[in-house]
Sequence to fold (368 residues):
Amino acid sequence: MGNFLEPRHNWTAMFITNTAVGTLPVLYGLVAWSSDDRWFFLIAASLNVVLAIVSVLVLMRSSTRPVILALTSSATVFPMFGAVHITGGPLASTLLGVTAAILLALAVAGRPLDVPVPVRVVWLATSAVTALVACASILEGAGLAVAVAGIAVVTACAAAVGKVSGTGGDLNLTVAVIGTIATGISLAGTLLSGAVPQLLFADALPTGDQALMLITEVLTLAAIVVLAWSWAQGAGGEQLQAIWTVGTVAALWQVTLLCVGLGALIGGGSDAGIRGGHAAATIVWVLTGAAGLLWARRQRGSARTVTLSVSLSIIGAAVAKLFLFDLATLDGVFRVIAFIVVGLLLLSLGVAYAQSLNSDDDRSVAQR
Fold:
């Protein structure tokens, strides 16, 4: 009997078999059981996950395939994803939320417990997916978009804090990837929740959904900024420029939605509110491009070329929007404000660059 307990034995196949024996009946219960069996389902699904995780904690030190063990244990969570029609939304969300919290705690606290890094990465990723499903089981539409944006901000901040303090360790890259994926889902969520129609029509969304959309856009914008900064740490050259370029474009998209959405909300769903929001968005585009051009003055080589190209593209897009869209849709004071402010910004930018060129010429003469 003692030979079965020796560390050199690898019980991967038996663990997979035992896990399948416990998980398949729970999966079958999603089809066969009714809402009257919800407590039985909750107990069965919870015990199945707990037994799988405890088994991994016991076996991983003697196993040469810890990733397979972690993936197998994570598979026990999948039956919970379809539990809504048995337990109802609130119970399913609670069950999934508790499971996500347990997996997150194990991933974070796994280092002192000598849990291998790949196992912790799998559990952390499973926790993130479970948290998203927990939100989707009880929320929908604009409310779900807010929840996803909140997850994106939390994971983005966690990645940034881990990068700054050095406490992220082996999981910092995984947290950053999860935050990036969550931010991408949040960006898609704004599109699916009616953000694009809101750019064109004053009554595209009800007032409540407009407010939730604004919260989503603010959270997503914060996540984009934090993630761009986090990914930029340690990057250099073309990689750094690519990070800031993608981050800037994504942030500008959110700022545009935010300006127009805020204008629509303040204007009470009137056309004047949307016009004001578009005027503000155009000005923000020009300001962003101008800031990039001024930043490019301090750069050299390929980095300067990329920054100049992106900044000029943003200013070009802003001018095109001003003449092709704003000129046709804006009226009265908003058109005047947009043209005057953009004109003054471009004029100031030209003066700043002219002074920069004179300074460069003076330095060249002095060096001779």
Notes: The chain is about 80% helix and 0% strand. Residues 1-8, 361-367 have pLDDT under 50 and may be disordered. Residues 333-367 form the longest helix (35 residues). The CA atoms of residues 225 and 247 lie 7 Å apart.
